[in-house]
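[recover] target loaded
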């Protein structure tokens, strides 16, 4: 039979409040990093699309030779990897659904979509942050209470 958790002490409440503040800072940093990477990725993707149009549709240099250079695709690829890491970081901090992560990852390969979903992600962030912080605080408080209960039982 499971026993109820004891009333939290002031120290446990304070630890939970600090955990909430830390989680808030992590979420803020994760969102800022994601937003920056969404714009950077979107810019490089548009540059890559321009390169492909000039190279294959317009055939500016003839023989489908690169116009801006092959480095555009390479740079976009490297930036996209950092973008995916930014998405994963934000997703894990906010504890969003798996489908949200997939949408955000795909936004880095569909022209203009990273700009659109950046706005949507900012909206999700504002809506979900209070609940995410409440959950972090609740988990921290329960962990502290369980630790105290275990320590008391061991004595």
């Amino acid at each position: 039979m499971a026993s109820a958790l004891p009333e939290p002490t002031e120290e446990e409440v304070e630890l939970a409040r600090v955990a909430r503040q830390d989680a808030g800072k992590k979420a803020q940093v994760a969102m800022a990093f994601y937003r920056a990477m969404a714009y950077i990725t979107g810019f490089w993707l548009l540059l890559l699309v321009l390169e492909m149009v000039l190279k294959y549709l317009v055939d500016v240099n003839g023989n489908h030779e690169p116009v801006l250079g092959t480095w555009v695709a390479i740079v976009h690829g490297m930036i996209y990897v950092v973008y995916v890491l930014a998405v994963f970081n934000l997703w894990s901090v906010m504890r969003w659904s798996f489908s949200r992560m997939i949408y955000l990852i795909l936004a880095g390969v569909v022209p203009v979509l990273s700009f659109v979903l950046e706005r949507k992600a900012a909206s999700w962030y504002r809506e979900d942050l209070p609940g995410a912080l409440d959950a972090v605080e609740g988990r921290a408080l329960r962990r502290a209470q369980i630790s105290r209960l275990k320590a008391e039982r061991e004595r």
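[recover] notes: The longest helix spans residues 10-57.
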